[in-house]
Records
---
Amino acid sequence: MSLFVQKYGGTSVGSIERIEAVADKVAGFKAQGHDMVVVLSAMSGETNRLIGLASQIQENPDPREMDVLVSTGEQVTIALLSMALKKRGYDACSYTGGQVKILTDNAHTKARIQSIDVERMRRDLDSGKVVVVAGFQGVDDEGNITTLGRGGSDTTGVALAAALDATECQIYTDVDGVYTTDPRVVDSARRLDRITFEEMLEMASLGSKVLQIRAVEFAGKYKVPLRVLSTFDEGNGTLISLDEEDNDMEQPVVSGIAFNRDEAKLTIRGVPDTPGVACRILGPVGAANIEVDVIVQNISAIDGTTDFTFTVHRNDAGKALGVLQRVADELGAREVISDDNIAKVSIVGVGMRSHANVASRMFEALGQDNINIQMITTSEIKISVIIDERYLELAVRALHSAFELSEPKITE
Amino acid sequence: MSLFVQKYGGTSVGSIERIEAVADKVAGFKAQGHDMVVVLSAMSGETNRLIGLASQIQENPDPREMDVLVSTGEQVTIALLSMALKKRGYDACSYTGGQVKILTDNAHTKARIQSIDVERMRRDLDSGKVVVVAGFQGVDDEGNITTLGRGGSDTTGVALAAALDATECQIYTDVDGVYTTDPRVVDSARRLDRITFEEMLEMASLGSKVLQIRAVEFAGKYKVPLRVLSTFDEGNGTLISLDEEDNDMEQPVVSGIAFNRDEAKLTIRGVPDTPGVACRILGPVGAANIEVDVIVQNISAIDGTTDFTFTVHRNDAGKALGVLQRVADELGAREVISDDNIAKVSIVGVGMRSHANVASRMFEALGQDNINIQMITTSEIKISVIIDERYLELAVRALHSAFELSEPKITE
């Protein structure tokens, strides 16, 4: 007998019909003898409806009151699912975040979970009840309602699975798993049976929007096996779990190709190459609350100056350009250039760590298609390149093929 | 400086515009230096929308889960009003029933308040905040969400006023006070400036649907001055307070005329007049969960039998008739008659206690208009008669005029 924590997202509970379908699914697991904890999001559209009410009053309403307001969305769905389970003859009990004491800090609208009191849930599970918990919400130590930010229901699911030492945390969504890359770009993209937490983190942050990053980090930290599945189709989905080093030999070198069109590239040219110059450039950018992704600085030219390039989110490009122009004046730099027409393509895989020549295989594949690489950045399990946006699809297809990702893995 | 607890009903907070208007009203009181606690209902229509969702799943959903579901309605409005107050520069903080520990029994969907922890509200009031509390809800001693039943927000208002020892509990609604009778029946019906708790109870239970009876009982028990006012018009409304015996001399004999068309009359004729017969008739009626209102039994006829008549809610008449026919067979009674075409008209007033001849004045007024009285029942501050429904309006107008209710009272 296993204990599963299942999380269903907004589209999965978007209507009474769909809530009934979720009840059927949960009842099926319960009938097989499993202990079940179910975490729910608000009905799709409901959170936006509530935010819309608030925005009629004020553009930036009080965050504490926003949390009181939007946390009602999940409270509605947990009650409805519990009713649907009871109708099917399964005992069920719903709980808000506060009622199962999901204690968070007091950073309203983006709170972080600090602890969970499992005593009441354990008692319910022991007496055969299905426990239904509102995702996305908690309370601070003064009893104020907090929310974990958009997508926080995934985090609730993982946190409950960790606290209850569940067999698996299953995230039901409208895709049937994690793919080697976006199937809209590569026809032969394949669903992965397994992926490691680290790979998933790189895939997620690079634009495969299946799971909230925070939930994956949390799952990795507490070693909670995490499975992504479709609410609407059958299938085993993708299991995200620890890297099993024993299987290293059988592991593919690259697990997936991630990409991202949301960035812009900024270059400051002819900067005097003196110690502390990187800080003098990026300090003001950070102070302006702009997040920087890829950073490249090459060795200095013969004239003692260097070029400094980095990428930011495209929405921040204008703001970053303004900051950079002031910095350029102060430093006596030659010029500042900004470029929106770029894309980032990354190969991700824990197998890279034990395989040489992965980078050269990547560059070779891109070179064969005459795709110019503008920037390169690497980590233990990831190599990213910045290229002209026009070549994005071509690059993804070339790499998917070069690393033979359409072929099933050797391991299960 | 006073402490006011103000309760606004569903139509008063039925849209963002109206919530903004309530915020203006509350801000006005706060600006005058008063401490303010505001109790809100759900936006009009919202509770029914939520009940509609549940009824799509099951006709009689689990009561605990119903409470989790419908309590979200008030949680939405308290957040929105707090935002609107903050926008106006007034510090405000919203609380669910659970957050201010409105402890109830565990009778879901019709719970009763047992205690309230005022510590947190006191702290907020002392620091100048407006405290905004969700009406209609509480928690039981295990932390389960409970609701007080329809109209329970009035009760929340009164309970908070009692717990906080407020100057006054002000119930804002869509009527501007309590009238001598229904203005749709008598043009010259007049708003009362004051009425006693006892009178209000008699008026409310007899069909003047301004306030929830439970709230009035509660206010009377804890001596909380209760004022009914209109959200939409200016004016002082009607103050419901203790009977001030000193003013007896100046008090009018009758304060108002209440009436009710919702009853049906049942008579069992030719019952042997033996001890215990009333119980043998009404016992089975009560056992069938039918509430009985007026009961009349006259002295027995020469043949040793008597007639026994009582009224029930019109919806229960058919059921009651069935019960009564079985009883009649057992008792060997002559026949059972039921009559739907009746109405109850009552005069209400604490002044009655010290004035003779009130009853005869009532009967005289009805007699002058040839209205036949079918049943009579009296209490200390009320006389009710059952008449043919056709004469209801005529009777109300005759009594309103006979007791000079169109004239302003002598006292304020």
---
Amino acid sequence: MDKRFPILEWLPKYSKEDALGDFVAGLTVGLTVIPQSLAYASIAHLPPQYGLYTSFLGCIFYIFLGSCKDIPFGPTAMVALLTFESIQNKGPEYAIVLSFLSGTIQLLMGIFKFGFIIDFISGPVASGFTSAVALVILTSQVKDLLGIPTSGSVFIHTWSSIFGNIHHTNLWDAILGVICIACLLLLRIGSKFSLSTVDDGLKRSKIQILGNRFFWFIATSRNAILLLICGYIGFCFFNNGLVPFSLIGSVPAGMPSFKMPPFSFEKVVGNATVSVTFGEIVADLGSGIIVVPLLSLLENTAICKAFADGKTINPSQEFLAIGVCNIANSFVQAFPASGSLSRSAIQHSSGSRTPMCGLYAGGMVILALLFFTPYFYYIPKATLAAVIIAAVIFMVEVRVIRPMWRSKKKDLILGVTTFIACLVFPIEKGIALGITINFIFIFHQVARPKISIERLKTGQGLEYLMITPDRCLIFPSVEYVKNLVNKQSNKQKIPVVIDCTHIYGTDYTAACAVECLTASFSSKNQLLIFYNLKPSVGAVFEGVDPKDLEVAYDEQGLHHALENKTMQSP
Amino acid sequence: MDKRFPILEWLPKYSKEDALGDFVAGLTVGLTVIPQSLAYASIAHLPPQYGLYTSFLGCIFYIFLGSCKDIPFGPTAMVALLTFESIQNKGPEYAIVLSFLSGTIQLLMGIFKFGFIIDFISGPVASGFTSAVALVILTSQVKDLLGIPTSGSVFIHTWSSIFGNIHHTNLWDAILGVICIACLLLLRIGSKFSLSTVDDGLKRSKIQILGNRFFWFIATSRNAILLLICGYIGFCFFNNGLVPFSLIGSVPAGMPSFKMPPFSFEKVVGNATVSVTFGEIVADLGSGIIVVPLLSLLENTAICKAFADGKTINPSQEFLAIGVCNIANSFVQAFPASGSLSRSAIQHSSGSRTPMCGLYAGGMVILALLFFTPYFYYIPKATLAAVIIAAVIFMVEVRVIRPMWRSKKKDLILGVTTFIACLVFPIEKGIALGITINFIFIFHQVARPKISIERLKTGQGLEYLMITPDRCLIFPSVEYVKNLVNKQSNKQKIPVVIDCTHIYGTDYTAACAVECLTASFSSKNQLLIFYNLKPSVGAVFEGVDPKDLEVAYDEQGLHHALENKTMQSP
């Protein structure tokens, strides 16, 4: 069986311990997903309720299809940013249709096993892109943190707009925001802290254990706690008739209705009603229809790898699962989503056992939609901005610079180039540039084999030239190798042997070049022998009927051929 | 020295024999270039004199910079077609600016040694493209052959238009055209024929030799002779007041004026005069500015290879030479040009010695411009169409199908796909599709190494798994290899050895995967050894500080490590 339904593997052995672990992890993730949903909706420039709409149905569908126990499906900062870049403030209808289309493309790629295309984004490009995304998102939140208007979605444009408006800063927003960020960062550090830091092998006292658990809980649900506190502060100010902060404002209560995605809809422009067709939506979304589904899988696959524990991961199955979740989500007015790295870490450390966690996290979002939306009104925008900023700054992968530098400097240059390109251009163009440069590396590697040239002697003292290319001979390298062989053979008029040990693949273009080589060697009466030719490669060469193709399969045969043939020729 | 002026190599040793050979070859090519110039201008949908303008200055400049003695620079069928696809009947000004821009790009690519990019067009793609170009050109001439109007520049559209108008066929044009094609084909066969076909080693009589030479001359200058005869027929009909054929019509006499290319110009539209700016011209030419210079080099490089006689060719020098010729040409109102394969064959077989031939061919075109243009009036269009058709049908490379099939079937499929794509879409899109598919082949080859897996034993009978990838380990293949190693090691819980003999290159992404592998093997207490790791590859792996990286450099060391380490572990 093809493991299209991973649930069939784990559900039959589902135990009480699994249930408890999943319940605790699910609730903990739920405490994070609610504030993140509200916040990430603002990255996509959508009203906050759309974040909640994105957070319950998909993560329940993921239980059935997901292959990784630590993926909490829902809105993520990166996908929200990509969504914003695609829909460009054109309204939630576009986001919902984008979720449907992204899901469809992901589903198709999953069914046709196109998961491998994630492999074509190398580590350095992914790091550069992710780091830039983090800075772009951080930048997009500065406006709420300072309470100023900004424009532009490209990093450098937004910053120039921020500096242009910085004198409009609302001090209350700014102070609250900075305090919130400080609290979140401190609690984050605290989450890695325990009351008894010495690993002394002794049993800890009950108080220590309880204290550690309590501390861990506070640190893990820091976003929710912060929202509660700041919401209360907002509420108090509001009740006293003072609103020094920008607040979220009213969030519609209740569940979204279950209905078809708005493939065409009517829009009010001025006094007129304009109908927007499906074709127009698709045209407006443009390349986003490809970029969003592919790059959101980048984040998702990174999570799978991070928590795989040596298990084989199957990106195609993840494509399929995420695709179905996004399609389902589009029926409850959600925007595109994926697995979220920040919540994954929480889910993993909270002791998740199976994807069942999604049930409890989704359930909490449903409860929030049904009962808590009136209270969201008072949450200051600066607090949400702080939640986002405190989450994304750790996406900037400063830690990879040193190993990349020591491992392969070219890769570091590539990573930095991608990073800068994503800040200077729209991010999808930035990563496209990075991928293109990386492809050029591959082409260069294919086109320019390393070729060693040695002057050797047979037992009888006959000198010959041994030319050894180190990789397969296919069209981009054919002319290079041919020219080099010609040049060397013209310089030193002795028999030439091409060592084909490392030539494991070839093509018609190479066969033609070989034919050309044998003909020109034959015409200048110089001996050319192909040594250790693999049968599959030899068959391709034979296909073009090269005249005088001399082949030798071991050293003895080679020396024999060299000595015999040289004797025959004048 | 960089050989930027190949003339410095051959001119100092220029002999009387060289001069005679070049003179004869130059005149023979001149007899071909005049009818071809008139004809190829019609492929570009330009008035015939522009073909002549394209044929004299560039081929004189080529003498100084060209690296191949058999290249007669001038209009070619393929480049004329590409020019037409770019300028789309917008007028000769566009063609002249295109010649300047193409030349500039070729010059820059020559200076910066970008000649290697021709290597990225494989044999099958080039064959499919060239064959399709031949059919598209042939199709474009059917209108003149039948004397009917047609529309559409894409193969399939033109043919549907031909069948729609076939009842308008002018019988006189059609009959003359078919007779002309038949004569040209017969004479072409004749050019490979000699009076004494038996190679009997005896001296031939003087009459035989003279006869052979005469026959060869007639066959080689068949285009010019046909034009002369048909022009005379047209003249006779015209003088009797009968014009049953479409004639070329008046060709302006005299040399073109030497002036700047029309970077901006005024155009009469209806009653108004509209000025066209350089920006508008560039925008209208669009991708043609890249496609024309690159693909015209494809033809040129193919000629160099065909007549290289085992010498190393330097595509960058050809880029540079052709670039300068096109720039110079744009000052005498020429359209883009390149080396022509059909005239190359004539130049080669006429005994050319150096690029000096261009002087005589160019001289003849100048004479034609000065004195013969009035006579061109009477040449029937069907004769020119016949000249083109008889030249291009031999560009359809049917002969490569059999060797391609026997050599590598995937390449044949690629060639046929490119061929069909060039007929169904505009040709530049067709070849782009072919190149893209070919690149996917490369990516697949890089991403999916062949990996052999063996179960071996040390001297002491310890079993281990030997995993040998056959090519370098870079990012697209990293996950594949890692997953395979994980899977195999989980299946058979014995020490695993990765044989790195063929891994000659790697990158940061691979290093991270290796780190991940060593960590997971270490955590499951299984031994993992990298065998025969090249120092350069090892250094990249070490960069990310993998824990427990075990390395062995020879069989003895490997067995020693296997036995020792296995003893240590529980």
